[in-house]
Each structure stands twice: as structure tokens, then as C-alpha cells.
Structure to design on (282 residues):
């Protein structure tokens, strides 16, 4: 049996191909080896996933996860998986390679993740050949939900938001400046706080101010990332992530304005990864 995982900081999507080539799907909490230990990851898998499958029959695990970009972080996840799937060969990779394989399969292209954060790469059909460094939500992550949320909060707190929008924001969230600053500087994971304002952006996307905020965020992403790839006018760009998926119309507009061909846009990579690893199930 083959087990595939696509894991972010908040959720993990799992797909299992059984002995009859049937696909089963599961979801657990997300794992980030920057914040979670091997024990925490192993315990969560043992509690929420292992009882639903015959873990001793799993022969291969293909895991793609956030922050799995160094041997140290990979080992944290790998050890947790080995504790739960003792008879399986384990392969742990960065979520960016997962996105590239899901989006491009075996063809060259530029793959991008636009979720809470942002990242991208040039993929030659087998491996990642170029990767513009993603600097995280404090220094970068242009085009991601946290970046957009941070811009929105700044406009709100600095009274640079149109009055009608300011009132809508105030009515919905009822946040004082002190509460906002406390969430940013005192509470854990401010990236999730900034990303939590995505529904407000989506609900008000027809407002010219919000539309421009999203456009400018995507445009910054193209300038900082996509247009720096030497092949960006020769191959197609494909994207995955909630921000790319729900704001796709503006994303396509920005791509056209930057003379980049935008091809596939999907919400999550897991279906594409299942096709990549289990083509005989389709």
C-alpha cells in the first residue's frame, strides 16, 4: 500500500492506495518541524491516522511538507513516520517539490505555492533546478495570505483605508489597536493572525481598494519571484494554494500583465501527487 501526504502548518491531506488500487483519503492536523517535535508528530499520526488504516501493510510513504528543506528538519518528520509505518520505505521532501510534481507531473514548468505564504521554483520535469529564496512573512512572502493580511492591518491602523471599508472591518472583527499589536508581537504564530483576514479580502474583492491590494500583492510576487526565472517566458506557470485558487481572476490578470502564461491553478496538490505516484489508480 502506498501512502501520500501533503502537509502544511495547519492541516495534512493523506491519500492511501490499497492493494486493490483504490484510493482512500484522510485529513489530520498539520506538521511543521520548525515547531513540532518527532514525538508530537508521531503521537498525532498514531492517534488520528494509524487507527484508520492497516499501518503495518504500508510499503511506501511519500511525504511532502512545509519546512522539510534541510536534513535536520527532514529527520524530525522521517523518524515520526518510521515509528508508525515500520515496514515502509519513507521519502520526505519539501512541499515545493510536491507542488511541482502535482502541477507539472513530468513536464518542465514554473510551480508556485500561494497560500498563507508564498514560494516558487523552476522544475525541469524531474527536479527543482531554480528556486528564488522565500524570505518568510516578515521579509517576504509577497502574494501570500499573510502578506495581504499584514498590508490590510497596516492600512486599517494607519487610517489609510476608505471609510466604508474601515467600518466594515471594525464591525466584523471588533479589534482594538492594542489587541492587534498583542496578536502580532506577543502571541505565537502571528502569520496565522495575518492570514485569518483572507475571508474579508475575498468577501470584499469587488471593492476597488481591496482589488488593488490583491493585485499589488500578486504583482510584487511576480516581480520578486516569477520574473526572475530565466525561463519565465518560455514555460508555463502553474499555482497551488488557497490564495491562488480563490483569487485566480486577479492572478491571471497579473500574469498577463507580466507576460507570463498561467496554466493550471489548483487549491491543493494532493490529487496531483496521487496521480504522480499512483497513475495506475486513474
Amino acid at each position: 500500500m502506498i501512502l501520500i501526504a501533503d502537509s502544511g502548518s495547519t492541516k495534512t491531506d493523506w491519500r492511501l492506495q490499497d492493494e486493490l488500487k483504490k484510493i482512500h483519503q484522510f485529513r489530520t492536523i498539520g506538521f511543521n518541524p520548525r515547531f513540532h517535535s518527532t514525538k508530537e508528530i508521531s503521537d498525532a499520526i498514531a492517534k488520528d491516522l494509524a487507527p484508520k488504516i492497516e499501518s503495518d501493510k504500508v510499503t511506501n510513504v511519500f511525504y511532502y511538507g512545509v519546512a522539510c528543506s534541510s536534513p535536520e528538519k527532514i529527520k524530525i518528520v522521517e523518524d515520526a513516520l518510521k515509528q508508525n509505518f515500520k515496514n515502509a520505505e519513507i521519502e520526505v521532501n519539501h512541499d515545493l517539490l510536491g507542488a511541482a510534481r502535482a502541477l507539472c507531473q513530468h513536464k518542465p514548468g514554473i510551480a508556485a505555492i500561494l497560500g498563507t505564504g508564498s514560494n516558487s521554483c523552476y522544475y525541469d520535469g524531474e527536479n527543482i533546478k531554480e528556486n528564488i529564496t522565500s524570505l518568510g512573512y516578515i521579509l517576504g512572502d509577497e502574494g501570500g495570505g499573510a502578506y495581504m493580511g499584514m498590508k490590510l492591518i497596516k492600512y486599517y491602523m494607519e487610517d489609510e483605508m476608505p471609510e466604508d471599508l474601515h467600518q466594515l472591518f471594525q464591525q466584523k472583527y471588533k479589534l482594538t489597536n492594542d489587541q492587534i499589536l498583542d496578536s502580532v508581537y506577543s502571541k505565537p504564530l502571528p502569520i496565522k493572525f495575518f492570514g485569518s483576514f483572507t475571508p474579508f479580502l475575498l468577501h470584499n474583492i469587488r471593492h476597488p481598494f481591496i482589488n488593488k491590494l490583491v493585485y499589488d500583492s500578486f504583482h510584487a510576487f511576480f516581480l520578486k519571484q516569477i520574473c526572475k526565472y530565466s525561463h519565465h517566458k518560455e514555460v508555463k506557470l502553474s499555482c497551488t494554494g488557497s490564495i491562488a485558487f480563490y483569487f485566480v481572476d486577479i492572478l491571471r490578470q497579473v500574469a498577463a500583465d507580466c507576460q507570463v502564461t498561467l496554466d493550471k491553478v489548483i487549491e491543493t496538490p494532493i490529487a496531483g501527487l496521487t496521480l504522480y505516484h499512483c497513475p495506475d489508480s486513474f
